[in-house]
Every structure is written in structure tokens, then in C-alpha cells.
């Protein structure tokens, strides 16, 4: 690992870089974890909001529970340093989710 600090992405606003440079390593890890979760959330919302063309039939996955709609997508959530799969879908303004199972079946 280099003794020099990393170079921030050129498209990152200066005020964000300055704010990050003031944080402790613990806070930086918290910010990194939050940023990753927020990015996943926004990507998931985009996928959920994309409409499937009319008239196209989507096959229902075999492992999809009866109470989960076909439009649901799978996402990964990290809880207490363990990763789990969840089905997620949008109902109006709310995001609904249902537990699917651990990412690592040995957990």
C-alpha cells in the first residue's frame, strides 16, 4: 500500500472530497458502507420502475414464493457482517421485501 493518499475521482465535488478528508477511518468505512447500500437501493428502484413492454409474458421463477409478485428482483442485504438474499418489489410508494436465504448457504 502506498504512503500517498488516494487520488479522488475527478467527477467528485471538491466539498465532498474535503468533507471525507476530515473523517476518521471508522467514519469513512461507515460512509463507504452507506454509499454502497444507497447505490444498490437506487439501482434496484430503477430496475423495479422499468416497465416491461405490454403483451410480453414474464415467466415466474420456480423459487419465487406465491406471495411475491413476478416483477420482484433479488437484492443482497448485509446484516451483522452476514449477507442475505431478499426478494424486493415496489407497491405504490413503498419498497416491499421478503427474505429468500443466505448468500453463503453455510451461514
From TrEMBL:
Which branch of life, at top level?
A: Archaea
May I ask which residue range the UniProt record assigns to the signal sequence? Answer: none
Q: Region Disordered: start and end of each range?
A: 39-71
Q: What is this protein called?
A: DUF6788 domain-containing protein
Q: Compositional bias (Basic and acidic residues) at which positions?
A: 39-50
Q: Where is the composition biased (Acidic residues)?
A: 51-66
Q: Which organism is it from?
A: Haloferax marisrubri
Domain DUF6788, residue spans: 55-104
Amino acid at each position: 500500500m502506498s504512503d500517498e493518499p488516494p487520488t479522488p475521482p475527478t467527477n467528485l465535488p471538491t466539498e465532498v472530497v474535503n468533507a471525507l478528508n476530515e473523517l476518521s477511518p471508522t467514519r469513512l468505512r461507515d460512509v463507504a458502507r452507506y454509499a454502497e447500500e444507497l447505490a444498490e437501493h437506487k439501482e434496484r428502484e430503477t430496475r423495479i420502475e422499468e416497465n416491461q413492454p405490454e403483451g410480453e409474458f414474464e415467466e415466474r421463477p420456480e423459487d419465487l414464493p406465491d406471495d411475491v409478485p413476478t416483477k420482484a428482483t433479488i437484492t443482497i442485504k448485509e446484516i451483522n457482517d452476514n449477507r442475505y438474499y431478499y426478494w424486493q418489489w415496489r407497491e405504490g410508494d413503498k419498497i416491499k421485501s421478503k427474505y429468500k436465504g443466505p448468500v453463503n448457504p453455510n451461514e
